[in-house]
Amino acid sequence: MSNVPQAMCPRTAPVPDHPTGRAVSAAAVEPRTPGLHVSPSRRAVAANDRPTISFELFPPRNPDAAPRLWNTIQQLETVKPDFVSVTYGASGKTRVTTRALVRRLLRETSLNPIAHLTCVGTSREEITTIVGEFLDEGLRSFLALRGDPPTDQSDWAAHPDGLQTASELVELLRDIEAKRCADSPSQAVRARVRPLSVAVAAFPRGNHATGGTRAQDVASLLAKQEAGADFAITQVFFDADDYLGIVAEAREAGVTIPIIPGIIPTTDPARLLRVQELTGVPVPHDLLDLLGSADDELDRHHRGIRASVDLVNGVLDGGAPGVHLYTFNQHHAALDLLEGAHLDGGARTAPDLASWPQDTAPARSTRD
Ligand SMILES: Cc1cc2nc3c(=O)[nH]c(=O)nc-3n(C[C@H](O)[C@H](O)[C@H](O)COP(=O)(O)OP(=O)(O)OC[C@H]3O[C@@H](n4cnc5c(N)ncnc54)[C@H](O)[C@@H]3O)c2cc1C
């Protein structure tokens, strides 16, 4: 199994934004989803000759949801994503289920998992133990986050021996790895074969949860890079200019690591509104109107996919290295979006709408 960020770039070398959009192969592949019309100029490309694609998953909330998630994972695996990330519930409340899902992904799939990890409410010692457990399982990639304090606990206080920022967590991850390598020559060799990689978050419109502006987030991103981050994944946004704007400001400030746009397939208005509520990122009215005036669910799905394809094309044409899709543990919209943007490598062999729209999950956030 190749190491994801190593494949993307060595830690020390800056990686340029894609200069002219994406590489294309000679063979055009028509979209297979009935009624889905996208630009014919987009062409399917092989998995290693295309922008990176990746997915966010969350651990199943109850055992009944596990088989459906596993089916989703198998469907997503067909497009050979570069990695999948697994969320960590607020204040670490999914520690056990996140670890179980990551372990299963490592053991039973060809996928490269990245474990989200937060530091809010946890001591340095506890984080060190958790990281050690993941590393012992064979995990080599983390998404280092500060996390949000719980909103439902009025008596909540930061851990006295905890970390304050994501960049401190990046530093701790690097220290833990360095100590493991110093303590064991075997670990040192393994680390050279599969280096530890650390991703971080970026916020194209500033971090609403912390009241931060985009300029503050760029400063924070620079600190994360200096602490040893390899690449960043953005929060959701609905206008390509938001992404292109933060990349431009970050580059100006000296941030050289790749910044991958985080994209939500915009097919479900209820979910979009829930995401707006949680992230503070406003959903454009014209997008909601577009979805709201659809004839039926299939029409709404097509409209949403087309809008998402436009967003994906906008960021890739602006130089994004790839796209990270917020799946909400569902594969249909994510795969239709990739197919519409000709990023699925022609992997799908048949229209995959047979079970849609029955496979619907509650319109909840992946962070719950
Ligand atoms: C892709 C992605 C995945 C996520 N996954 C999860 C998840 O699985 N679980 C979860 O609970 N949450 C998740 N979140 C939410 C995230 O944890 C929160 O939004 C949190 O409030 C900020 O996290 P951070 O890692 O960016 O923190 P930080 O970068 O540490 O920022 C926290 C605050 O400190 C400030 N700050 C930090 N360092 C500096 C500096 N050097 N200079 C100036 N200001 C600074 C920032 O401006 C900000 O106000 C995710 C967010 C994203 C974008």
From TrEMBL:
Protein's name according to its UniProt entry: Methylenetetrahydrofolate reductase
Record bears the keyword Membrane: no
InterPro entries linked to this entry: FAD-linked_oxidoreductase-like, Mehydrof_redctse-like
Top-level division of the source organism's lineage: Bacteria
GO biological processes: methionine biosynthetic process; tetrahydrofolate interconversion
UniProt family annotation: Belongs to the methylenetetrahydrofolate reductase family.
Entry keyword Flavoprotein: yes
Known cofactor(s): FAD
Region: Disordered, residue numbers: 1-21, 349-368
Catalytic activity as recorded in UniProt: (6S)-5-methyl-5,6,7,8-tetrahydrofolate + NAD(+) = (6R)-5,10-methylene-5,6,7,8-tetrahydrofolate + NADH + H(+)
CDD domains assigned to the protein according to its UniProt record, in alphabetical order: MTHFR
Pathway the protein takes part in: One-carbon metabolism; tetrahydrofolate interconversion
UniProt xrefs under Gene3D superfamilies: 3.20.20.220
Molecular function as annotated in GO: FAD binding; methylenetetrahydrofolate reductase (NADH) activity
GO cellular component, one term: cytosol
Keyword tags: FAD, Flavoprotein, Oxidoreductase
